[in-house]
Amino acid sequence: MNSTNSQTPVITIDGPTASGKGTIAHRVAQVLGWSVLDSGALYRLSALACLDRGVDTADEAAVAAVARELDVQFKGEHVLLEGRDVAARIRDEEVGNLASAIAPQMPLRNALLARQRAFRCGPGLVADGRDMGTVVFPDAPLKIFLEADVAARAERRCKQLKEKGFSANLANLMKDMEARDHRDRTRSVAPLCPALDANTIDSSTLSIDETVSAVLDLWSRTPESKTGTRA
């Protein structure tokens, strides 16, 4: 990360699965005219590529090799893996669960770290994930930890899946989320937790617009927002 990149402002939005961080990150970035990093997509893409290639995900070196060689392009709502739009496939629960399972592997995390930091370019970046504020961008001037109770998150995910034409069972989704939350929070490598200087927002009863407004209000209070970096 060069000196120019290190001076580019970043807003990190971390939180558990289905907390709405991706939607909020895109909306905040749109208002500010900034770029977006969906770090979870990189882990999901790695998981999907391993599935498609029949890679043994217990082989950490093999998983990391897949991640390093990913041919990926992000074009708006389209996510291209080796030229194929896999935006819908990477949101499949099987892929999400596998991504959560391989995420603690240090070789994989090291393989993706440089890729994630390369997204930092002017005028600014909104990065969402699970360790954006704690590991990837620890110098970010604004760090958000977005949380919501598991029932609210399961209902949101169930609605999203049904709107996209997928079958979904609320009870099963809640069970999967609780298991994923436990795995993400207790893993030895970069566990899901707020950065010490993060601002926690509970979106359980907030609308998308209300959550976006809360993030933008916090950004407006930072010294960096006064230096002309905000669109």
UniProtKB/TrEMBL annotation:
GO annotation, biological process: nucleobase-containing small molecule interconversion; pyrimidine nucleotide metabolic process
GO MF entry, a single one: dCMP kinase activity
GO CC annotation terms, alphabetical: cytosol
Domain Cytidylate kinase: 11-218
CDD domains assigned: CMPK
Subcellular location(s) per record: Cytoplasm
InterPro entries membership: Cytidylate_kin, Cytidylate_kinase_dom, P-loop_NTPase
Group of enzyme by EC: transferase
Family matches, as Pfam families: Cytidylate_kin
EC number, UniProt record: 2.7.4.25
Catalytic activity as recorded in UniProt: dCMP + ATP = dCDP + ADP; CMP + ATP = CDP + ADP
Keywords: ATP-binding, Cytoplasm, Kinase, Nucleotide-binding, Transferase
SUPFAM superfamilies: P-loop containing nucleoside triphosphate hydrolases
Top-level taxonomic group: Bacteria
Residues binding ATP, per UniProt: G15, P16, T17, A18, S19, G20, K21, G22, T23
Family, similarity comment: Belongs to the cytidylate kinase family. Type 1 subfamily.
HAMAP family in the record: Cytidyl_kinase_type1 (MF_00238)
Protein name: Cytidylate kinase
Organism: Pusillimonas noertemannii
